[in-house]
Specification:
CATH topology of the largest domain: Alpha-Beta Plaits
Structural class: alpha+beta
CATH architecture of the largest domain: 2-Layer Sandwich
Number of strands: 5
Helix content: 55-70%
Mean pLDDT: 88
Low-confidence stretches: none
Oligomer: single chain
Shape: rod-shaped
Largest sheet: 5 strands, mixed
Number of domains: 2
CATH superfamily of the largest domain: Reverse transcriptase/Diguanylate cyclase domain
CATH class of the largest domain: Alpha Beta
Length: 260
């Protein structure tokens, strides 16, 4: 009878010991798992820190590269702007040099060299296409008296004012040349002798009625010559020049048509 109770008690004790052992083992495994989890978390946090640091370093390097490229681009833009400015100044200087090589410094009219070049082109066009063209040569009457009475500075101002007056009243296809001294030539394109005479008369009247600074009224004598096939530029100019001096001989302030 008691034997059964003893066996039951021993069994219970054994079971309790087994359960305690299992509990101990379970707690130990739990601690080991928790330790492993903490270790993994620590390692993960370390990796996150390292990765974050790497990303920050990469971002810093990228920002530096972007900054350097931006600065280089800005320097390139500034260099291009400076180059464009220099090129513009060079172009302006070249244009000015070209203008100076083609025009008279005092009056702004064509110079003799430019006139001769353009007149040769008109002669060739006239010969090839039978187009008419005329010269209107004018000279200020008694210009020496103006210089003697008012001085050469006033004389230069008169020449400049006359050139401006004539240029403002010519057609776009025409050109004005200062031939020398107080003598000017109008190259009248697409214009025959009779039409050139009408143009010359308008210019003569324009000068006669204009009030020039310092000197007031003055006049011009004009010779006109239409280009004739087979003639040279020198011959063409001589015909117009001879007509001019004929106008002066006949009393000045008048126009005269030249004959080849």
């Amino acid at each position: 009878m008691y034997y059964k109770y003893i066996i039951a008690g021993v069994t219970i004790i054994i079971l309790e010991g087994f359960l305690i052992a299992l509990l101990v083992l379970s707690n130990s495994a739990k601690r080991r798992a928790e330790d492993s989890l903490r270790l993994l978390n620590t390692q993960l946090e370390q990796k996150v820190v390292e990765r974050t640091q790497q990303l920050e370093e990469s971002n810093a390097a990228l920002d530096k590269e972007i900054y350097e490229r931006t600065m280089a681009q800005q320097e390139l833009i500034a260099s291009n702007d400076e180059l464009e400015a220099v090129n513009y100044q060079i172009k302006r200087a070249n244009d000015e040099l070209k203008r100076m090589s083609l025009t008279d410094k005092l009056t702004g009219a064509w110079n003799r060299r430019h006139f001769e070049k353009e007149a040769a082109i008109e002669i060739e066009r006239s010969e090839r296409y039978k187009e008419v063209c005329s010269l209107i040569v004018m000279d200020i009457d008694h210009f020496k008296k103006i210089n003697d009475q008012y001085g050469h500075l006033v004389g230069d101002a008169v020449l400049s004012e006359l050139a401006k007056l004539l240029q403002n009243n010519l057609r776009k296809v025409d050109s004005l040349t200062r031939w020398g001294g107080e003598e000017f030539i109008v190259l009248a394109k697409h214009t025959g002798g009779s039409s050139a005479m009408e143009m010359a008369e308008k210019l003569r009247h324009l000068v006669e009625t204009y009030d020039f600074p310092e000197v007031g009224e003055m006049t011009v004598s004009i010779g006109v010559a239409e280009f004739k096939s087979g003639k040279t530029l020198d011959n063409w100019i001589k015909v117009a020049d001879d007509a001019l001096y004929e106008a002066k001989r006949l009393g000045r302030n008048r126009i005269q048509l030249g004959n080849h």
